[in-house]
């Protein structure tokens, strides 16, 4: 279980670094081009990783092509929505909305994967989501929304749609890990998102009346560095997160998604000069606490800690009043 949690936390850090690259490039580079660059760079990274580990091409064999297709389609939709929200919202806001996905993951895992989603997991996810809501009050309170209902409303809707697509993709990833190699899962997903980005760019070129805003833009050195960095970090994050589901249930790892909010706050300060307020700091503490609660709760339900053992521990520190002398 511990390797799964560590890999999940590393994936949130890498995904946040990817988001920084996307946000840097977003003002000048169209969404389809960002998706294409992020995917093609990650695909090259994955290929090099496979060659280095000796897994090419044997680790790419699959017995579930339709499963990969479903995972790829939902993952691609989630990627487009996530990147789209980054163009409409500040980094911390977009991350907060997108990481409503653990709620969806826990719900779907309980129904679709028939995982034993006990009360502590639900409580950890809800506490983490409460931390996200606390962070949002600084930027998307009622007064702020009244002034910016267009961009903020669209951005929130796109981000929440991305969260739902991402949750379905995560559940499908969990299913695929039962029979497929990590490299195959990441490879076919990345191939599909590369094709999706390329298809949108081609459509914009030959049918500009449909999606003229997605026409290819030659990136300058700064944008190119941001796009390559986003691709490298996105590729690493996909490897980390896919591997994590081999070691722990999707519903357990869901609460650790909220660590991305902590990294997003740090990135906002370092790269964009946005200092966190008291609600943001409170939310970050709640997010970190939700991960700790999930870990402790898992140990309790695994039998390592029981109600009886807790009372036994407490009784050891109580006075011996009422007990016969020995």
UniProtKB/TrEMBL annotation:
Residues 3-136, 155-293 form the EamA domain. Keywords: Membrane, Transmembrane, Transmembrane helix. It is found in: Membrane. It is a multi-pass membrane protein. The keyword Transcription regulation does not apply. Its main location: membrane. This is DMT family transporter. It comes from Candidatus Rhodoblastus alkanivorans.
């Amino acid at each position: 279980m511990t390797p799964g949690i560590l890999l999940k936390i590393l994936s949130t850090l890498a995904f946040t670094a990817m988001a920084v690259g996307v946000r840097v490039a977003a003002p000048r580079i169209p969404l389809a081009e960002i998706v294409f660059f992020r995917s093609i760079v990650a695909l090259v990274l994955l290929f090099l990783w496979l060659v280095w580990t000796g897994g090419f091409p044997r680790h790419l064999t699959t017995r579930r092509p339709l499963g990969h297709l479903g995972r790829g389609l939902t993952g691609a939709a989630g990627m487009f929505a996530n990147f789209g929200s980054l163009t409409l919202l500040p980094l911390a806001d977009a991350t907060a909305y997108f990481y409503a996905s653990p709620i969806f993951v826990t719900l779907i895992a309980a129904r679709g994967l028939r995982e034993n989603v006990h009360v502590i997991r639900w409580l950890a996810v809800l506490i983490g989501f409460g931390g996200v809501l606390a962070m949002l009050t600084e930027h998307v309170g009622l007064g702020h929304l009244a002034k910016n209902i267009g961009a903020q409303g669209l951005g929130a809707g796109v981000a929440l749609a991305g969260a739902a697509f991402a949750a379905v993709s995560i559940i499908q990833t969990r299913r695929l890990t039962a029979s497929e190699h990590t490299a195959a899962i990441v490879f076919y997903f990345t191939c599909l998102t590369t094709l999706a980005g390329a298809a949108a760019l081609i459509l914009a070129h030959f049918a500009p009346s449909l999606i003229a805003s997605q026409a290819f833009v030659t990136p300058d050195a700064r944008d190119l560095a941001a796009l390559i960095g986003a691709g490298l970090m996105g590729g690493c994050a996909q490897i980390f997160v896919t591997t994590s589901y081999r070691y722990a249930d999707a519903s357990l790892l869901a609460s650790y998604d909220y660590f991305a909010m902590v990294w997003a706050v740090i990135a906002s300060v370092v790269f964009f000069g946005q200092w966190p307020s008291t609600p943001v700091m409170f939310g970050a503490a709640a997010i970190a606490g939700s991960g700790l609660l999930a870990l402790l709760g898992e140990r309790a339900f695994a039998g390592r800690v029981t109600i009886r053992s807790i009372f036994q521990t407490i009784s050891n520190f109580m006075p011996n009043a009422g007990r016969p002398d020995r």
